[in-house]
Amino acid sequence: MKLVSVNVGLPREITWHGRRVTTGIFKAPRAGRTMLRTLNLDGDGQADLSVHGGTHKAAYAYPMEHYAYWRRELPNTPLPWGAFGENFTTEGLTEDTVHIGDRFRLGAAEVIVTQPRMPCYKLAIKFARAEFVKAFLASERTGFYFAVLREGEVEAEDSIERIAEDERRLSVRDIVRLYTSDAPDPQLLQRAVQLDALPDGWREHFVDQLAKAQVS
To answer: Which of 1, 48, 92, 198 is deepest in the core (most CB within 10 A)?
Structure first.
């Protein structure tokens, strides 16, 4: 497992449907070593801090393995590393094999997986396709966020080492399916609400879903 690319970008203003929008979704590969800090990478930034960034979303990872799928789906769209707004393009990690609460060493840093990426309209802006948010979520190729346990420098080609696996073994894809299902599995919901690494907003949603499932 390794870091294929480290991607950063600062917020910029663009025009979308006749209005000005500020977004940090445009990322580009960065050469050399970059410091991963508690809130983000040096040289990186988010526009709307009410929904992006913060300690639970310090860095966003996206598997390089998904690029082949999107090149088929978007045949005339350039897809350089960082195209999906990810900070880390990774090799060897997928939503099926990565669990919420898993801990990894990336270069000199240590991180923990906290949640899937739930796409917003700015992904549609990035690809100039209004329907892309729905297609991205339906593909279950969401990528995932890291919180930083130990700050440190990272660089493309650094190895990624799983140093601890969460004992509940709920994958990123399990969480996506729980969130999008009309009838989520109560047993999986029960396990999800016990995930220490899952942010409070997610846990509260699953608590509500579990209560509804128990009533029905």
So the answer is: 198
